[in-house]
Amino acid sequence: MMNHPDVVVYGLDHFRGILSISKKNIEKSYKHMLDIGKIVLIEGDGRNGLEEFAPFDVKFYIIFDR
Q: What are 5-36's pLDDT values in tens digits?
């Protein structure tokens, strides 16, 4: 699926530290996908969405409550 020319995966979090950890983990196996823009990590509030990249085929949420 990730090799399909139209597929882009967006990761969104408002914690820079979480994005940094995510990037390091993704780079272990998929650095090339980050480099070519097939995986995009964005710092921001998920409640605001990513309207500039819509529409999406799939949305997946992980929400933590302390």
A: 888 999 999 899 999 999 999 999 999 999 99
Max distance between CA atoms of the chain, in angstroms, equals: 39
In angstroms, the Cα distances linking 27 to 1, 11, 34, 59 are 18, 14, 7, 22
- Its pTM stands at 0.80
Residues 6+ apart with CB under 8 A from 12: 41, 42, 43, 44, 46, 50
Would you list the DSSP string of 4-46?
A: STT--EEEEES-HHHHHHHHHHHHHHHHHHHHTTSEEEEES-G
